[in-house]
Amino acid sequence: MRFTVSLKKNHEFRRLYSRGKNAASRFMVVYCRRNGRAESRVGITVSGKLGGAVRRNRMRRRLKETYRLCERALSPGYDIVIVARQGCFDAAFGDLTRDFMKLTRRLGISVSPAGARNARGGGNAAAAAR
Q1: What is the 3-state secondary structure (H, E, C) of 55-117?
Q2: Which domains, ranges and CATH numbers included, belong to the chain?
Q3: Which of 16, 38, 56, 104 sees the fewest Cβ atoms within 10 Å?
């Protein structure tokens, strides 16, 4: 994640939940709020109710990669939290990236839909950078 640092503190997550804008789909909920910095910060949450550690960590890795591929299409200077939902586990990777971009456009933090050519779930990051 080139333009992003991680959200780690509990109070930062709670601030986003209470004061941030949010958009939801069947796969995930995305919360965002301006942070006044040059870079964005991201946090990914997968509840223990959704499965064991192996399953949760796999979902966290998939959501992190989804964010990484779509990162260039997002405006900098936001705190973003992605919360996994039950449907996320069985979703195809392309569905996750399309859904994430749809939610970011709804929240107004997406620079342009064409900015994430690789958000369709295929190809590699080098091809998207060309």
Answers
A1: HHHHHHHHHHHHHHHHHHHECCCEEEEEEECHHHHHCCHHHHHHHHHHHHHHHCCECCHHHCH
A2: 4-107 (3.30.230.10)
A3: 38
